[in-house]
TrEMBL record:
<dbReference type="InterPro" id="IPR012976">
    <property type="entry name" value="NOSIC"/>
</dbReference>
<dbReference type="GO" id="GO:0005654">
    <property type="term" value="C:nucleoplasm"/>
</dbReference>
<protein>
    <recommendedName>
        <fullName>Nop domain-containing protein</fullName>
    </recommendedName>
</protein>
<comment type="similarity">
    <text>Belongs to the NOP5/NOP56 family.</text>
</comment>
<dbReference type="InterPro" id="IPR036070">
    <property type="entry name" value="Nop_dom_sf"/>
</dbReference>
<feature type="compositionally biased region" description="Basic residues">
    <location>
        <begin position="339"/>
        <end position="359"/>
    </location>
</feature>
<feature type="domain" description="Nop">
    <location>
        <begin position="212"/>
        <end position="316"/>
    </location>
</feature>
<dbReference type="GO" id="GO:0031428">
    <property type="term" value="C:box C/D methylation guide snoRNP complex"/>
</dbReference>
<keyword id="KW-0539">Nucleus</keyword>
<dbReference type="Pfam" id="PF01798">
    <property type="entry name" value="Nop"/>
</dbReference>
<keyword id="KW-0690">Ribosome biogenesis</keyword>
<dbReference type="InterPro" id="IPR012974">
    <property type="entry name" value="NOP58/56_N"/>
</dbReference>
<feature type="region of interest" description="Disordered">
    <location>
        <begin position="330"/>
        <end position="359"/>
    </location>
</feature>
<dbReference type="Pfam" id="PF08156">
    <property type="entry name" value="NOP5NT"/>
</dbReference>
<dbReference type="InterPro" id="IPR045056">
    <property type="entry name" value="Nop56/Nop58"/>
</dbReference>
<dbReference type="InterPro" id="IPR002687">
    <property type="entry name" value="Nop_dom"/>
</dbReference>
<dbReference type="InterPro" id="IPR042239">
    <property type="entry name" value="Nop_C"/>
</dbReference>
Length: 359
């Protein structure tokens, strides 16, 4: 098998020496750790260099459009003349054109980078994290009920679930039958392992979110940010939503944004207002993470500082009126004063009548 590799230097044609190694996909990267190891699998047959950067740019532009330029045709004709073997091509578009125009059997793998594939990693991670939380809650409930028959007071003494399982795992069981304790210990061991894996998964999710969407992570946290992306399907799809849509995304009692830690800091009467403001600033952060050239979290830190300042002022003096006019408020106050005057006149009349009736 031959391999055509496009790079900034030019076109390289390799001969695969050991095709069995290609079947071991998971460990294939180990064969290319050093040049010495790579020489045992592939051998360079021909290298067609670009003359300048303009020629390299034209070649890669043609590749992106699924076309073949003159220099690539030259390389492929040499391959056709010298060897009658299948050619491996990374991209599907050039592979189809090569097979159609030059009648050269071409196989390919879709190795092209896609942003959605990166989003898939932490979409699956947040889904798995939710499932692990449900399983852990179910397991600890069974464990407490099961072991509670032998030591019912322990549930009130130790409230932390992981500590409870570790205590059960390391305790002496004189009054417990061997068959019962074997099953209880097996359940506790599973819970401890799942809890440790959950901690690792949460750290992985934090790192991935800070790498892909740092501004969104600063605004709403890694959990809420990952859940927003998971509901949309990808970060690019999330960037297409308006602020009002992002605010109610995930709904079930006012949406995911409403349950962010920043909204939880506010008083109940201000939560609706703050969640709207947070959704608007989060959309800006999403656009910056998706389409911006800089991968820093600067805009997220700046917007969060503004929201915190606004939150402090609103807590001190109350959120300003966002609808209605001052005239309507004044009319309502005047109307209330008239009612109060009528009530006072009625009270005075009743007092005068009672005084006259007295002997």
């Amino acid at each position: 098998m031959l391999v055509l590799f496009e790079m900034s230097l030019g076109y390289a044609n390799f001969k695969v020496l050991n095709e069995k190694k290609l079947q071991e996909v998971d460990s294939l990267w180990k064969a290319f750790e050093t040049p010495e190891k790579a020489n045992t699998i592939v051998k360079l047959k021909h290298l067609e260099k670009f003359q300048d950067t303009a020629e390299a740019l034209a070649a890669f532009t043609a590749l992106m459009e699924g076309k073949i330029n003159k220099q690539m045709k030259k390389v492929l004709k040499k391959i056709v003349k010298e060897a009658h073997e299948p050619l491996a091509e990374a991209d599907a578009k050039p592979g189809g054109v090569i097979k159609e125009k030059l009648n050269l059997s071409c196989i390919h793998n879709r190795l092209k980078f896609g942003a959605d594939k990166v989003d898939t990693m932490f979409i699956q991670a947040i889904s798995l994290l939710d499932n692990l939380d449900k399983e852990l809650n179910n397991y600890i409930m069974r464990c407490r009920e099961w072991y509670g028959w032998h030591f019912p007071e322990l549930g009130k003494i130790i409230l932390d679930n992981l500590t409870y399982c570790k205590f059960v795992d390391r305790n002496n069981y004189a009054s417990v039958s061997e068959e019962d304790i074997c099953n209880i210990l097996h359940l506790c061991t599973q819970m401890i392992e799942i809890s440790e894996y959950r901690t690792q998964l949460y750290e992985y999710l934090q790192n991935r979110m800070m790498a892909i969407a740092p501004s969104v992570t600063v605004m709403v946290g890694e959990l809420v940010g990952a859940q927003l992306i998971a509901h949309s399907g990808s970060l690019l799809n999330l960037a297409k939503h308006a602020a009002s849509t992002v605010q109610i995304l995930g709904a079930e009692n006012y949406g995911l944004i409403y349950h962010a830690s920043f909204v939880g800091q506010t008083s109940p009467k201000h939560k609706g207002k703050i969640s709207r403001m947070l959704a608007a600033k989060t959309v800006l952060a999403i656009h910056y993470d998706t389409l911006g050239e800089d991968s820093s979290s600067g805009i997220g830190v700046e917007n969060r500082a503004k929201l915190e300042a606004r939150l402090r002022t609103s807590e001190d003096r109350g959120i300003r009126k966002i609808s209605g006019t001052g005239k309507a408020l004044a009319k309502a106050e005047k109307y209330e004063h008239k009612i109060q005057r009528k009530r006072r006149k009625r009270k005075k009349g009743t007092i005068m009548r009672t005084k006259r009736r007295q002997p």
